[in-house]
């Protein structure tokens, strides 16, 4: 071996090792990007890089079986005491009418009780003048038989109620309908995640987190004023109520499978050529650097 060849061997060996190390590092980096799941401290998969965050929503329609109506009595009088006395007498008749139609005591609750002065601001550049007092008493009534709601409203107005602030429809047991909305929301979230993963050339990995982001929908108010009520039972249509649910979800991304998205198969290791019977043996390769 010549001295020049001896001097070049360590340098060539070092360059080869350096190139081999760079290739191994590049391959390891590709694996981290393609396989974004790395084991966490608890042994469970933890996201390293490559997740998709989505939300999903679902809706369930159901017929209400409960109505809650807020009935108010408003009175005015020259004095505060007289305003409250008049209001109490009229509201007592309203409550008695509700009881006469089968409304139980536990289904009625005072929602608001107010007393305020009635002030006159008509005089320019002068302080307001108290002209009297106004009392208001609001009672919330729960009606389990919605078919009787129209007749109940007529009876309460006839007993002295001055307005009906609103009717809210709901269900006493809506667990099944809400569960259906939640199920639809999760399905919608997965559909969104799959669309995004395919667009990115990936497929969905395991589900990392799933949480409910509150629910939407609920009672639908139907406003009406007592002075607008016509003769006969007030027409009230319960219809259907919408129960909505929304979820937030995070999936890991995995390499795509199939002909287009599958990673390339590793090259097969080189093997010695099979000798042909009767052929002379191949000459050994000359060492590098020799002519």
TrEMBL record:
<feature type="region of interest" description="Disordered">
    <location>
        <begin position="259"/>
        <end position="291"/>
    </location>
</feature>
<dbReference type="InterPro" id="IPR007497">
    <property type="entry name" value="SIMPL/DUF541"/>
</dbReference>
<feature type="compositionally biased region" description="Low complexity">
    <location>
        <begin position="259"/>
        <end position="276"/>
    </location>
</feature>
<dbReference type="InterPro" id="IPR052022">
    <property type="entry name" value="26kDa_periplasmic_antigen"/>
</dbReference>
<protein>
    <recommendedName>
        <fullName>SIMPL domain-containing protein</fullName>
    </recommendedName>
</protein>
<keyword id="KW-0732">Signal</keyword>
<feature type="signal peptide">
    <location>
        <begin position="1"/>
        <end position="28"/>
    </location>
</feature>
<dbReference type="Pfam" id="PF04402">
    <property type="entry name" value="SIMPL"/>
</dbReference>
<dbReference type="GO" id="GO:0006974">
    <property type="term" value="P:DNA damage response"/>
</dbReference>
């Amino acid at each position: 071996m010549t001295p020049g060849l001896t001097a070049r061997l360590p340098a060539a060996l070092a360059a080869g090792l350096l190139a081999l190390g760079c290739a191994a590092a590049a391959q390891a980096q590709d694996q981290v990007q393609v396989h974004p799941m790395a084991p966490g401290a608890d042994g469970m998969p933890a996201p390293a890089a490559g997740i998709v965050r989505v939300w999903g929503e679902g809706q369930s329609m159901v017929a209400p079986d409960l109505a809650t109506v807020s009935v108010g009595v408003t009175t005015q009088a020259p004095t505060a005491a007289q305003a409250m006395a008049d209001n109490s007498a009229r509201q007592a008749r309203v409550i008695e009418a509700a009881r006469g139609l089968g409304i139980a005591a536990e289904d009625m609750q005072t929602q608001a009780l107010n007393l305020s002065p009635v002030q006159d601001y008509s005089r320019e550049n002068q302080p307001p003048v108290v002209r009297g007092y106004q009392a208001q008493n609001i009672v919330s009534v729960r009606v389990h038989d919605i078919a009787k709601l129209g007749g109940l409203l007529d009876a309460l107005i006839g007993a002295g109620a001055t307005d009906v602030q609103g009717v809210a429809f709901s269900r006493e047991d809506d667990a099944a309908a809400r569960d259906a909305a939640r199920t639809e929301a999760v399905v919608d979230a997965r559909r969104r995640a799959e669309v995004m993963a395919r667009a990115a050339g990936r497929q969905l990995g395991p589900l990392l987190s799933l949480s409910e982001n509150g629910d939407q929908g609920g009672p639908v108010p139907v406003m009406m004023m007592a002075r607008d009520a016509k003769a006969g039972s007030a027409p009230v249509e319960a219809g259907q109520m919408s129960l909505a649910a929304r979820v937030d979800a995070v999936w890991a991304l995995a390499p795509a499978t199939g002909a287009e998205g599958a990673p390339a198969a590793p090259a097969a290791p080189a093997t010695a050529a099979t000798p042909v019977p009767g052929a002379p043996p191949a000459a050994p390769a000359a060492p590098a650097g020799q002519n």
